[in-house]
UniProtKB/TrEMBL annotation:
Membrane topology: Multi-pass membrane protein
Native species: Halalkalibacter kiskunsagensis
Protein name: Sensor histidine kinase
CDD domains xref list: HAMP (cd06225)
Entries under PROSITE patterns matching the protein: HAMP
Transmembrane parts of this sequence: 12-36, 285-305
High-level lineage: Bacteria, Bacillati, Bacillota, Bacilli, Bacillales
UniProt keyword annotations, A-Z: Cell membrane, Kinase, Membrane, Phosphoprotein, Transferase, Transmembrane, Transmembrane helix
Record carries keyword Plastid: no
Recorded GO MF terms: protein histidine kinase activity
E.C. no: 2.7.13.3
Principal localisation: membrane
Amino acid sequence: MFSIPVHPLRKTIFVRLIVMYLAVILPIISLGVYLYNWSYHNASQEISKNTLIQLDSYLENLNREIQWLEIQQFDILQDNELRKVAFTWGVMDNVQRKSSMNYMVHRLTSIKNTSNYIKDIFIHIITIDKTISAGNAVQDFDHLKYEYILSGIQGNERRLIKKEDSLYLSTSMMGVNNVNEPFAVVQIEFDTEELKAALDKINLYPKSGSFLLSEEMGLIVVAGEESPHIKESYRNAVNRSIDIMNLVDVEGENYHIDKAYSEEMGLFVVSYLPEEVVSRPLNKFSNWALVFAFTSISALIIYAYSTYRLVHRPLLLLIQGFKRMEKGHLDMPIKHEKTDEFGFLYDRYNKMLIRLQMLIDQDYKQKMMMQKAELKQLQSQINPHFLYNSFFILNSLAKLEDTERIELFTKMLGEYFRFITRNGDNDVLLVDEIKHARTYTEIQNLRFSRRISVQFDELPKEMERIKVPRLIVQPIIENAYEHSLEKMSDQGLLLVTFEMHDNEFSIIVEDNGDTLSDDDIHKLSERLAMKEDNQELTGIINIHRRIELIYGQGSGVFLSRSTLNGLKVMVRINLEKENSDV
């Protein structure tokens, strides 16, 4: 598995490519959704518009039919034969009565045959207690029906009356003697089946239906497929504001409502249509939209996978290679079989590794070999003055026959020469290096114990296991004795201390000598900072270059004025530099 780079995921090229793809595809998907909604809205409006035209036409035809029937009613009431029967029935003989009745029945039948909406037509004559109809001719007067119709006429300006499941159109003519009661009432009973058949012609779509309703009488005619819940919902809908189109939820299914209203008749005609019928023409578009969405998602997945495999993963492989290079692993080339642009980059990366290895062999290893040679030279440069003084001390101790001190001195001298002359590993533990330096100061203390005092601090345990090059502390102490402390007429002081700060460790050697001026110290510091290989190699420069080569920039030997007024030499080791550069 490839690890994610240090950079946040949102800043990777992979994520940016995916975002770019989404920026291209999402507007297309949004446009498709907008077109679908726009088409659905237009289809709904178009269906509603056509339905409203049909509803208005239905109401207009029904209104004309009712107006024509009302004219016929008034014509009947103005008929002389009806008045003759109503007012002179008692003086007429049987022949006259029969002739008049036949005339009235014939006229009613003629009117009934002129309209399919008429189921029957009645004349209620109160003065003779008779009812004449086109269907049943002459029959006894129906007082209950008359009273119901009469109450409906008096309270209804539009003269449409509903009784149970029947619809009537009635008109009357007041008598001469009694102005409060009509002498005759003409009643037309509508054929609800014909009304339903005419209303059903509006229902052009499957599962659609329509209703004819009155403000005063409620539901009159129902046509089409419907449920009681739908009828009840639409009955409530007519009491609301009259909109061009409403959407009503009935038992979890949406229905479109279109309504038309006749102010003259006080009638609503309401048409309902399931929403699925409206959206059915768009189903093919919807299916294609789903196919498009599925294709887009599949394309996104394929694009993401291809981008990851062809771009992101090869980039991660290259980034990992550079990370290994930063850690100093130059023997791990990128193995690949690619022939594309990444293959070119991998080849150049591998060649760069080879080139770096060659440069290291020519530069770093060469410098290390040179440093080893310098270390050998340093080891071989046993100070004759120190050796002479050592034998002089032995001679003095022998004359005094101080065997105990002779034994101690020879032991320290043996450890000293064994450490500087051994040819083992060039790197030693800091605890061993400090032990060697302490041995040297103890040897010197036998010579100068009266006029040179030494303060040598204990090495902190945190610093004991640090690996350092050999001979980085003792030569500095030797310089302090040789160039400063031995020449002092006053009491000399040598101070060796240690400091720690995070991953930085320091070994500090100070003296109170007065042989070096500030300008001398500054010149020595400049020589340490110089990188020329041809400069004269003194002990301190040798130590500085070896430490800097191993631990990197920031580590090495640093000179300054001591608080004791002499020279302060600080050997600084930065382990962070070692981990990142070596």
